[in-house]
Amino acid sequence: MSQSATAPTAMISCLQPIDRTGLEALIEKGKADPTAIKTLKCKTIAEGRFRHLNMIRNLPPYIVDEPPGLLGDDTAPNPSEASLAALGSCLAVGIHANAVAQNLTIQSLELELEADINITAVWGTGDTSPKPVGFDAVRVKVNLIADAPQDQIDALIAHATKWSPVANTFTKPVALDVKAA
Fold first, then answer.
1. Percent of the chain residues past pLDDT 90, beyond the cut
2. What is the value of pTM for the model shown?
């Protein structure tokens, strides 16, 4: 059993299992048509100041705001923090799904993410001298307690990272088309 240096804070027993039959059906569906593409949609509505409602499927609005230091109302994560949450959640889903596929029991799973970003350009209104825009580095610590030796846990994390859609979005060039409607 592998344990992190810090005690888990969210889970105190086994992670609630995912539906293995459902996972197997998704696996088979993906193998049947490996070229399938799904289009995801989000409608972002500016409420005022720097608070935005993001409408996804039929879910309640996902709010994104800025902290007071960036002139926001501090009611929700800012866009960069939301992207870290998306990455952490995607990695956690992949780790959990692959653990189930490998018949591993996870007692707890926590990911700690941090990223470095230069914000002096102030969204293009401030210092626009040449500099990297966006994250310069992202670090993820996976605190995982599971019924497996450390080398198997390390392989599980590496495999989940390799196949994470959000991790791949962070690490490869993606076509981006932004224009007036």
1. 77
2. 0.86
